[in-house]
Amino acid sequence: MISAGEFRNGVTIEYEGDIFVILEFQHVKPGKGAAFVRTKIKNLKTGSVVERTFRPTEKMPRAHIDRQDMQYLYNDGSLYHFMNTENYEQIAVNESDIGDTLKFVKENDMVKILSYEGQVFGIEPPLFVELVITETEPGFAGNTAQGATKPAVVETGATVYVPLFINQGEKIKIDTRTGEYLGRA
């Protein structure tokens, strides 16, 4: 159990039957009335962010999230298959539990599987990936004073906006958290 007075950024808690991570917290002591803790929390299953206030003495269970390194093997329809590289155990995860977190992940890449009490609820892809551009308009130099970009499709099928000078067949580095182009690989 953790009290609201002990909240810190990154702590995971059980609240209203779901798992939340604390993004921001602020201890507020108004001139009149009791102190309270104002928080911004993110639901780890749905990804929604909400603001809540708690009394500092309010207690709730701490949620222990298991993060396990696994290799992404393949998908067949709505199931995605992963393998533990230590004991070669395989698991299948529903597309609804993953969302679009695998849009920059190729087969055989390593990811972190997030689970709570044995139930998989999410996947953390690597922070940065290097992918080859499979489709984009021909590149040209000049007229880039304003940082102009164009859409490009990478080998996983996702679309990334890249500078005009990037051509088809080039390997680029992408930030998986934002989907932004970082540079040539």
Features:
about 180 residues; mainly beta; five-stranded antiparallel sheet
- The SSE string, one letter per element, is EEEEEEEEEHEEEEEEE
Please tally the β strands and state the result: 16
Roughly what fraction of the amino acids lie in strands?
A: over 45%
The biggest beta sheet, please?
A: 5 strands, antiparallel
The separation of the N and C termini measures 46 Å
Which overall shape is indicated by the principal axes computed on the Cα atoms? flat
Mean pLDDT across every amino acid position: 87
* Rg over C-alpha atoms, rounded to the nearest angstrom: 21 Å
> Structural class of the secondary structure composition?
mainly beta
Largest sheet: spatial strand order? 9-8-7-10-11
- What share of residues is helical? under 10%
Poorly predicted ranges (pLDDT <50, ≥5 residues)?
none
Report the oligomer: single chain
By DSSP (H or I, 4+ residues per run), the number of helices equals 1
Q: How would you explain this protein's 3D organization?
A:
Helices cover 2% and strands 52% of the residues. It contains one helix and 16 strands. It is flat and about 65 Å long. It is mostly beta strands. The model has no long low-confidence stretch (mean pLDDT 87). The strands form four sheets. A five-stranded antiparallel sheet has the order 9-8-7-10-11. A five-stranded antiparallel sheet has the order 14-13-12-15-16, with no helix packed on it.
